[in-house]
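Long-time lurker. I teach an intro course on protein structure, and each term I like to show students one example going from raw sequence to a predicted 3D structure in token notation. This year I'd like something fresh instead of my usual example. Would anyone be willing to generate the tokens for the chain below so I can use it in lecture? Attribution to the forum is fine with me.
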Amino acid sequence: MDHRIDRRSLLRLAGTGVLGLAAAPLLTACGGGSPAGDGVSNAGKNLTPWPAYVPFSGPTPDSPGDASGVQPLYLKYPEKLVRSVNNPVGDGSDVTVMVVSFGAPPKPVGENQYWQAINKALNVNLKVTVVPDPEYGQKMATLMASGDDLPDMIMFTNLALPHGAEFIQARGADLSEFLGGDAVKEFPNLANIPTYAWQGMGRIGGKIYGVPLERPMPGNSLFVNRSAMDAAGIPEDWTVEQYLEAMKGLTGDRKWGVGWFKTLFTGLAAATFHAGSLGAPNTWSAEGGTFTHTIATPQFEQALEVMRKLVEAGNHYPDSLTVSSTDMQSYFHNGTVASISDGFGSVNLSTLTKINGRFALDLGRPYGPQATPWQSFGIFGYVAMKKAESARIKLLLRICDYLSAPFGTEEYELANYGVEGKHFTKDADGIKTTELYSQENNSLLPTRFIGAAPSVLYLPGHADVAKSVHEWQKATLPKSVRNPATGLRSATEASKGAQLNQIIGDGIAAITFGRKPPSAWKDVVTQWKQAGGDKVATELATEYAANK
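-- Reply from a regular --
Happy to contribute to a lecture. Here you go:
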């Protein structure tokens, strides 16, 4: 459960891109230090039913997705788009929004054709406050502490916010009557958001207070240089011994098999791939309703042993504990390291553009015979709304609905690519973005953090990578496991999560890099339990029982 303040790293570790496995469940991370059973706890409350799931019957994929989380694969862009929003969205009014940004600030609306097109389609004047990710925590804390009027819509990330759930409950709109059960059908694109995303967001006091930003089910993944591996004769399916031999064979001549970076060693992130490969539970197990953390399992200790062997053989990048995630990304893109742990959301055009044809990108399969690959929380964040009259809330939900339109719709095309002829063109291979798109898009003006379509596998111009990733999903996801704490709340985890994560991360680094013997891990587990880990387990068990 990662509460790191480095939000750029969290985006990479999180899905898409995306939400990663190292992150805490959003509503878990929002609680304060109040006791279990309080107003924001779900224990003993009447629970609003999850929104009904009504999937969009869109274009036929080249290969279908499935219930395990395998995404539908599209090798070509749909020739014919459909319209998913047939009624007016807005009323011409101003709509204030606050979102996080992981890039440069957007061009002003008067100079921004993408922003203008979105405003026209929505029939509102979006007034967007874009907050750089290093400043987002402080901005949220200031906003929550002030009595000032709130923006109409606020994006909440995985950042730990003390008393965040109490803040949302006190000043946010309860969306239960609009979204619970069949009520969501008034907003068809929101009804198309899969149930796992709503569950990943969770409830507050039994109520629904947000709209989730869906991300794919794969979590933290091992990105590999398939060209280098093929040249070395390394198979796609491997054993523990073959994995270790592969990393050894890929090391030499100022190249390394493994690319770790410093922020991986906060919480569980660095061990995710190895723990899942060796059958460790995804952060928690909930046998008989009792929560046990993965760090207390023999499988997790085996994962640490594999990591320690990589270091002893010199197969990791030598400055792993000091190099930044951004630099390590570059080392992977240029071939300096042959593998890197990253959020599944980095399977995208930006990553492929940076690799620039140097090698074939692929994902590494788990290496253990009883692998339990770890799933993500299924979300990157969620959108909450300030209290308002019903008509205003419905308008805001229609905005989320429009921007959540699925692949294969006119609304998706506008939200994700802009205006044809200005921001993109189309040819036989599909979408081709223009130079203007690099200056005006839904990352620089983060409309993708107001509403997000359920993701599909479509990588225009890189069909081979899309097919490889799809095959990886089919081989991996049926064995994958979800974190049973997803969407649950723990007051202790919210108030002490950063401290607990640091204990885990420091312990992983100490064992892996030989500063302490493997036998010292039991002391790390004891320290974590005494610092609040046991109390977190008890609180999660209570919430888990209430949410059944």
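Some talking points for your students: The radius of gyration is 23 Å. The chain has a mean pLDDT of 90.
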